[in-house]
Amino acid sequence: MSKIHENLDLLEERIQAACDRSGRDRGDVLLIGVTKTRTAEEINEAVDWGITDIGENKVQEIMDKYEHVHGDVNWHMIGHLQTNKVKYIIDKVSLIHSVDKIKLAEEIDKRAREHGIIASVLIEVNAAGEESKFGTDLEGAKSLIEEVRAKCKNICIKGLMTIAPFTDDPEEVRPYFRELKALFDSYQGIKDETMDMQHLSMGMSGDFEVAIEEGATMIRVGTAIFGARNYNI
Ligand SMILES: *Cc1c(COP(=O)(O)O)cnc(C)c1O
User: Fold this and answer.
1) What CATH homologous superfamily does 3-226 map to?
2) Which secondary-structure segment (H or E) carries 13?
3) Radius of gyration of the chain (CA)
4) Residue 131: pLDDT band with limits 50, 70, 90
5) What is the pLDDT of residues 178-203, one digit of tens each?
């Protein structure tokens, strides 16, 4: 069996165990395979295993691989998105996880209108307030959500996303996941064309089990599937 399939089998067992521990249905947690720096061939191996959703953090990588990945996969833009690059991916990605500024939302809105589509987005929250990370803080998220709903008619806000601080002990990030879940819950019951909060995108290779326990509906996992990344190649 290929290493990627072996890793996916092991990952799947851990996802299932985390669901069992927290009384959640496996079907309520979407595994997004994060494929940055990986080739289309490697991605196709993961697709052959059953991966349906792919996460990339660079526009260029989506452009390069888009035509070469087989099957009917959904592409997710999970990284920082520059406004001048929105036009390249607006018709390619099913979900943009990284909206953190009104200027970016307005550009997505404009490009979506040109294509006659409603763009699905998540609001990226920097729950731990780390200087090095993109994303708005919790209070900023609330006002950004209201501003996007008021101004961007070709956007539907589908949920929230966070990247937790890097740590060797995933228990340390549990409070951030919990905070984001509370914010997410506060929007349940409000649903219209501008907002339908269904997705809580949190958890990576080092902390996806804690994220599932705290209510993640999407986990973004790269290293645990494909191995350590080498950025020099
Ligand atoms: C790279 C990346 C991931 C996956 O990280 P791993 O630790 O390799 O699982 C998840 N989310 C974002 C936004 C990323 O850039």
Assistant:
1) Alanine racemase (3.20.20.10)
2) helix 3-21
3) 17
4) confident
5) 999 999 999 999 999 999 999 999 99
- Which tokens belong to 222? 């790269």
**C-alpha separations of 138 from 70, 203, 231 in Å:** 38, 18, 32
170 band by pLDDT with thresholds 50, 70 and 90? very high
Residue 189 Cα to ligand 1 midpoint, Å, equals: 30
CA of 209 to the centre of ligand 1 (A): 14
Protein residue with its CA nearest to atom 10 in ligand 1: 220
| pTM over the 0.70 mark | yes
Contact (CB, 8 A) for 136 and 126: yes
Which residues fall within 8 angstroms of residue 46, CB to CB, at 6 or more apart?
Answer: 4, 8, 33, 35, 225, 226
pLDDT digit string, tens, across residues 134-150: 889 999 999 999 999 99
Q: Which of 140, 175, 130, 132 is nearest to 160 (CA)?
A: 140
Distance 35 CA to ligand 1 centre (A): 9
Residue type, 226: F
